[in-house]
Each structure stands twice: as C-alpha cells, then as structure tokens.
Amino acid sequence: xxxxxxxxxxxxxxxxxxxxxxxxxxxxxxxxxxxxxxxxxxxxxxxxxxxxxxxxxxxxxxxxxxxxxxxxxxxxxxxxxxxxxxxxxxxxxxxxxxxxxxxxxxxxxxxxxxxxxxxxxxxxxxxxxxxxxxxxxxxxxxxxxxxxxxxxxxxxxxxxxxxxxxxxxxxxxxxxxxxxxxxxxxxxxxxxxxxxxxxxxxxxxxxxxxxxxxxxxxxxxxxxxxxxxxxxxxxxxxxxxxxxxxxxxxxxxxxxxxxxxxxxxxxxxxxxxxxxxxxxxxxxxxxxxxxxxxxxxxxxxxxxxxxxxxxxxxxxxxxxxxxxxxxxxxxxxxxxxxxxxxxxxxxxxxxxxxxxxxxxxxxxxxxxxxxxxxxxxxxxxxxxxxxxxxxxxxxxxxxxxxxxxxxxxxxxxxxxxxxxxxxxxxxxxxxxxxxxxxxxxxxxxxxxxxxxxxxxxxxxxxxxxxxxxxxxxxxxxxxxxxxxxxxxxxxxxxxx
Length: 496
Ligand SMILES: [Zn+2]
Ligand SMILES: [Zn+2]
Fold this sequence. Notes:
Layout: E1 3-6, E2 9-12, H1 45-51, E3 55-56, H2 65-73, E4 77-81, E5 83-84, E6 87-88, E7 99-102, E8 112-115, E9 129-133, H3 154-168, E10 172-177, H4 183-196, E11 201-205, H5 208-221, E12 228-230, E13 243-247, E14 258-263, H6 275-284, E15 285-295, H7 300-308, E16 313-316, E17 329-332, H8 336-341, H9 347-358, E18 363-366, H10 370-383, E19 388-390, H11 397-406, E20 411-414, E21 428-432, H12 441-448, E22 462-466, H13 471-490
Parallel strand pairs: 10-15, 10-16, 11-13, 11-14, 12-13, 14-15, 17-22, 18-20, 18-21, 19-20, 21-22
Antiparallel strand pairs: 1-2, 3-9, 4-9, 5-6, 7-8
Bound molecules: zinc ion (ZN) (2 copies).
One zinc ion (ZN) is lined by residues 26, 104, 106-107, 109, 112, 125-127.
C-alpha cells in the first residue's frame, strides 16, 4: 500500500483523491510521520483488544482499512515504517545480508527492500506499515485469584520472594534453578502480584512443548484469567489477556506490551544464539518493566553478569525433593565410533547396557550424531529387540516417547532432542561420545538432569562414555557438584 501526506496526515491509497494520486509513495519515502493527538472517539474495543501492545501488519488485522483509518485520524492508532534506516522494525535485524530486494506490486517500486529474518511471520518490506495502538489502554477488569495449594521447597520460597520483588520494582532477575527444582511454581506469587496490580505479563519459551505444558498449569492456577497461548498455528492470535504465554518468535508482534517478561530456558536454542530474539524481548517490554530469566544452565555471558553483580541472581541449587543431584561417572570407551562402525559395542558400554537390562532399569543413551546412533541401533537390538532410537525428524518421536514413559521400551537411544523436558521416573542415562564437540557443558548438565527426578526414585546412574576426557565434561561434572555443595551449605539437602 502507498500513502499521500496532506496536512501532516497520512492518507492510505484507496482514500486518496484523484488529483493527488501522482503523489502516492511508499511509507519509507516520507521523512517524518507526525503523531495525531488523541481525540474523543467511539473506538472499537475488539480492535483495541487485538492491537494493544502490538505492532502488526495490515494482513494480520481482520478489520477494514476504513475502520483503521478512522482510528488513525482520531489518534487511536499509528502507521509506522516497517523498515527504517536499514533496520527491520519488527525483529531488529540490521544485517544487510538478511534483507532482500524485490519488484513490488504494492508500492510499484523495482527494489522494495524486505526482511528475510522474520519472514516466517509474514513479510515486512519498506512499503509495509506496522500498525500500533495509541488509544486508551485497557484495565484488567478481572480480580486475579491464585488457586494453588502446593508447598514450596525452601529454595523455591526464596526465589519466589525475589521474583515478587523484581516484579514490584521493575527489575531484572536471573533465576538459576537446577533441573527438577520446580521453577514454574516459583513464578506463581510473582504473577499473582503482577495481575493484582493491573500489570500485563508474558512468559516466553523457545520451545512450543513448554508452552503446551505450561498453559493448562497456569490456567488452573489462575482460573479467572483467560490465559492466552501463542505459538505457530495458534488460534488465540487476536485475544487479549493480562497473562500471555508464547514461543519467542511470537514476541516479534508485540511492542511495549508487557510490565514483566519471563523468559524460560533462556539458554535454549534459538534465544541464546539469536540476537534478533533478544531485540524482540526488549521491544515487547514496556520501558518500565521487569525481565526474569529462568535457566538451569546459564550461558557464560549470563554467569559473568551474575558474578559481577550486574544481573541480580537467585539460585535454587536443590531439587524439589531435596535429594542431591546425581553426579556423572566418567568412563573410557576407547574408539567407540570405530567399534560401532565395525558392528560392535565398546566393552564398557555393552556392560553398562546389559546391567540396566538385567536390573530392568530403563535407560536413555544419548548420541552426538544421528548416523552413529542409527548404526548402533541394530547392535543394541541384539541385546534386546525392543530397544529403539529417536531423533528430531523421526515422525514416530512422540509415540516412542510415550511408549518409553509407559515402560514398553527398555533402552531408548536418542540425539540431544531429549536433552530437556522429558522426564521418565527411575531412568539411568548414558552419553556415548561425551567428548564430542557437539556436547556443550549446558547440554551435559541438562542430560544429567534427566536422572533421579522423582522423590521416590531420587538416585540413578549417569555415565559419560568417552575416547578422551574433555574440559567440557569436567566442567559439567563440576557444575553439578557445585550445586550440591551450595545446597548442602544452605542446609536444603536431605542427608542420606
Ligand atoms: Zn524482520
Ligand atoms: Zn513495496
């Protein structure tokens, strides 16, 4: 779409009178876009609900251009440039390689620039206005009510208090909680506090699975609040809620929306690697707002900020059940890759697997690459025919995880796809090729975190098999020992 500016007002193409049509230009071509003062207006509440705290493309707004234009003329919404001074105003991309040029039917220009970085959310190009709400804000009309009678552990209690304080005072906080500490419950009091004081809050996670799992839990905890859940393919796109759960990419659509943003698994792909997603978090927050980062394995950058005191941090070094984290064993497996390619299992790995089968203990065995894992599968199946393997592109992935949970699979070979989130009570875990460069410290700690999750089965064996011990392996073990030490020091560990 193109515009004409007349009396400092944008006129969208369909409303431009005949005599001014030759002045039609792409929004990118105007130096200055003035804001229109707010005027008395009978605005549309559904449009307000959709647009408030967002920056959307025309295609994302199911209202007529006429309606939008009237709101604009009364100062209730604004048209902003989608791309400005080489930056995508939706995702923050500034890398010239991540823009393309196309011949554009909307602005009739030969080289209309568009952003390739956030194109999966619909194309932002030079001539695309981003539409934001500038009308009256919305009050949360519903009184929040926290329906949760669970008990917090000592570690959770302390973290919960700090989350409340951070939300009250618009601060940043890193919650560094070991796998199995119960970080969701730590948020309840803070969310309640935010809702009570009329704040709008969002929980973002890089993984859709997490959003699916958290939504019913939060909806149960806050039964009077319509919790909105946004992910690729979500049907709640247009609904407003004071409590929104979303995958990190969905943040691109928001602008100055939230009084508190909670980012879960802040270290997990792609957030940790993707600068534009960090931009999206900053863009989605209000100027005065809190940012709460949750992780079991902070990146070295976050750890540094935490050590220096620039990022206030609260640690939960102990699991909810109070038992110490199982410490990984390190075991030499020789040239395991060569052995497997010759159709044999390294002795130490075969012994470990047979022991699990004899004791009827289920196990996950992690591999650094799909190829080696697939090569190893038939060799493992000689030990037991029901042994299976799973990887990211496996169409049977969900079914296999389910059968593993039911106890139908004795040993499941897996790539790092199961490093997070999957909990099977009483499993033992092995990492084959823990020395592979693909396994970072965080991954090894997360994998170790699969063991001993349930209070009635708090122990378990975790073994790193290698062909040459690496610093990364040593660091992962050190990380886990350190957490146990801190837990003991606080007096939060159950002594066995
Ligand atoms: Zn973009
Ligand atoms: Zn264009």
